[in-house]
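yo

u said u wanted the structure for the complex thing, so here. seqs first:
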Amino acid sequence: MDIFLFLLFAIIAVVAAINVVVQTHPISSAVSLIGVMGSLAVLYLLLGAEFLAAAQVIVYAGAIMVLFVFVIMLLNAGAEAKRGRSLMVQLLGVPLLVALLGLLAYFVQRLFPQGVTVHFGGFTGGTAEAVGRALFTSYVLPFEVTSLLILIAIIGAIVLARKELD
Amino acid sequence: MDAFIVITLIKLALIAFVLLTAVAYLQWVERKVIAHIQVRPGPYRVGPHGLLQPLADVIKLITKEDMMPSYVNKPLYLFAPFIAVAMALLSIAVIPFGPTIEVAGYQTWMQLTDLNIGVLFILAASSMGVYGIALAGWASNNKYALLGGLRSSAQMISYELPLALAVASPLLVSNTLSLRKLVGSQEGGILHWNVIGGGQIVAFLVFVIAAFAETNRVPFDLPEAENELVAGFHTEYSSMKFAAFFMAEYLNMVTVSCMAALLFLGGWDAPWAPEHGSRFVPSIIFVIAGLTALYHGANPPHKLDRYTFTAFGLIFLVLAAIFVAPIVQSWLLPLFWFVAKAGIILFAFIWIRGTLPRFRYDQLMGFAWKFLFPVAMLNLLVTSFLIAWFA
Amino acid sequence: MTEVPISWYLTLSAILFALGVAGFLFRRSIITVFMSIELMLNAVNLSFITFSYQFKQVNGHLFAFFVMVVAAAEAAVGLAIILNIFKNRATLNIDEIDSMKN
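structre next:
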């Protein structure tokens, strides 16, 4: 069951991620990216991160991606103009990417022996309570700094988006 | 293990059936109530007092021609109603309707599943529901639909904030994210409910107002404002695809009403102890309803009503008798209180639709950001401060 | 119950990250480039949570949480910048936004 669920959602995530890259229309990419985020949320659940899974859907899929879709709709962004990347880039880029990926996968397989396995319920420390406790004790300084960052982001977004007053 | 699967499947079928029937009849109730607010009879032709109208509507919607305009973005156009109704159905899975019951020796909860993060699950499902409307508006490739979709995504992002903040304060009081434990922490009568015992009356009002906006209901139904936008995001939808959006809206109404009942009104907890008479309340209500119907059956305004009113009066009296029976009281009474609480909020939805005019768009946004959001924030701050002070 | 090797999760994370890099490099629409960045951040989050499982500690979850919060702030500012660019130059193609080049 574990391996079935993992494979199902891993394949959905990879296919959707490929779709993000190859689709020419931004809104198709955005919908595919929502698919990636949703399947990643399920994988988080399998890894025992129940709070993070909910936060992933609420914050990433439910707030950030809505903003993206909203902006795409607002700008009425059409399909990306087909433009000739030089042939060399296309010929070299994909094999290089595959090579990089192969290398990464190889090192991951080497560095993490097969003995360590994941099964559902193997780690139950990801509850909302555990995350909250750690957040407000050992991570309280980063938490406060993040709140400052959000304040700056709010002000920045308002300044950027305001109408000129002249 | 096997018994668990069988019981879950039975519960699944039962909840799906009851929910979909309730949604169909909610629409009938809405049309009737609004009709009576506007002093007209409402649906009257199909069945006695239009009682079979939902069935007729379903047949009409299924058999109608399914038009697809040629200029739409096909995959997203087909995908949007599906996601709207799927996300609306999803959240009902974690909503508990009553306490544990025993059927044929097996103990089970009147709930499909209880999650540690039940409240977050519902918030997540409702925040994904935005895509149904936004993508429908975009994929229709129509100016009105696009404007409706844009408005709805802006509105739903804005009102999600006060909604989430209003949900947070009763969670602080009850100290859990599981809906079942949430009800457990409010047990013991009306004085222990979060809305009174927890002092969350402000959060309750903010929640209800934000819920109206989240479900795109009057006075916040800007995404489908028919006098400016034709029909908003579902302009280009017909037949079952249109029905899917309709269903999603009513399912979302049911979900937020259940949420309000669970978070603030003590779920299935009776307002006062059953020993002191609250167990007779449902029977009394049904007896009054039955006698009223019998009286109208004896003095019928129309010829046919002689039989229909009498029949309904007898049905109500039988229901009243069932509620007195001690065997079923243990699970029927909580169910009654839960349905009554959710039903009152659903009625408020309809009542307000018959009463209030629509907001203007800038008023809508200003209301969310300049009034509702600060109020919810302040309420959360005060609540957490008081909890820290007295804990 | 067959169990999943932990390295599979990390490989999946690597694949998603590489696809994010590919999107970032190959695509010309500024919005898609931005979405590729989000894809990379998601891949990194999966790694954090996998490590959290491996060491049975909650710390990885907190890192992932902070990444999410920063991504939200970044999206708000980034999309405001995109709106401004579109308002001033009426294009979303990153190759045409080169006024600082010369």
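Chain A has two domains: 1-79, 127-166. The interface with chain B takes residues 27-28, 31, 34, 50-51, 53-55, 57-58, 61-63, 66-67, 69-70, 72-74, 76, 127-128 of chain A (CB under 8 Å).
cya
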